[in-house]
Amino acid sequence: MHSLAQYSIAALQVREQASVSDKYPSTMFSGLQDFTRLDLKRFGGHKDEVNCVAFSQDFQMLVTGSDDQRIRIFNTNTAQFICKLKGHEGAIKSVAVSPNSRYIASGAFDKTARVWRTASAECYHVLTGHSKSVETVVFSNDSSLLSSGSWDRTAIIWDVEKGCALKVLAGHASLVQSIAFSPDREFVVTGSWDFTVRVWALKECSTYPDVRILSGHTGNIHGVTVSKDGMLASGSWDKTIRMWNPKTGRQLHICQGHKGWVQALAFSPDGTYLASSSDDDTVKIWDVVNGQCVKTLDGQTDQAQHCSFTPGGALVASGAAVVTLALT
């Protein structure tokens, strides 16, 4: 994440909004003049670099993690500081909010992941099992599972309520940097600095193989995501995005255009578009049918490290700033 002790949010909105039936047409992305800045909010308080951010599913809550070993929680709308979470003994490398908003997860340099109760801000579980820094934490869509990825080259699947490890995913040759669950929890995807993506079956009677290795990237994998229909996308420091059929392993598209490392990815709620953020200061929107870029947002963020869509279709991208693009 870009070095920030103070985190900023800038909100933009499309002047002419499409109806729901328009399915986010590519004409929505015809020019930067379509976007107007609405406001700017600043989130401060950390005493060192901000490494990671996460939003609740309704985007009412922002969670930040820092090298100062603290997690801070804010009201996104008012920018009001709510509370901080203390307990880790190393830099916070990743944070996540469960889809039901009941839990916050964190991964840190101290080799642990933690699950916190949102309502009380108390630590619910300390998850031990990794032998090196925990670099990513991700909840499943039903909030029942958590996965953590580490420099120890493994990912671990955890039961959120019980706080116990269910499965260790071993096989990568380097850091597991990114993880995504499929919406139906049939598989989980890991992206690694060994340049590969792996698809792991979670269900015993799954139609997916136990593990499938997807090769093609020539740089570290920094982001993976799965659409509601099961399409897989991966973003890499080779400056490309690749779209895959995870069941067959077939590569569907190679999306080229970024001039910097691809840091994060997100599918639109209906699965028809993919957003990518990069440290080239751009966010790009891709049509999943043909893999073509339909919109480039240039200069709206500083080294955008995060992007995600709200349930209503607004796109939020963040780095030194968070940009909101209303697509519905």
Description:
The chain is 0% helix and 51% strand. The protein is built from no helices and 29 strands. The protein has strands at 7-14, 35-43, 50-55, 61-66, 71-75, 81-85, 92-97, 103-108, 113-117, 123-127, 134-139, 145-150, 154-159, 164-170, 176-181, 187-192, 197-201, 211-214, 221-226, 232-236, 240-245, 250-256, 262-267, 273-278, 282-287, 293-298, 306-309, 315-318, 322-325.
Write the layout of secondary structure elements.
Blueprint: E1 7-14, E2 35-43, E3 50-55, E4 61-66, E5 71-75, E6 81-85, E7 92-97, E8 103-108, E9 113-117, E10 123-127, E11 134-139, E12 145-150, E13 154-159, E14 164-170, E15 176-181, E16 187-192, E17 197-201, E18 211-214, E19 221-226, E20 232-236, E21 240-245, E22 250-256, E23 262-267, E24 273-278, E25 282-287, E26 293-298, E27 306-309, E28 315-318, E29 322-325
Parallel strand pairs: 1-29
Antiparallel strand pairs: 1-2, 3-4, 4-5, 5-6, 7-8, 8-9, 9-10, 11-12, 12-13, 13-14, 15-16, 16-17, 17-18, 19-20, 20-21, 21-22, 23-24, 24-25, 25-26, 27-28, 28-29
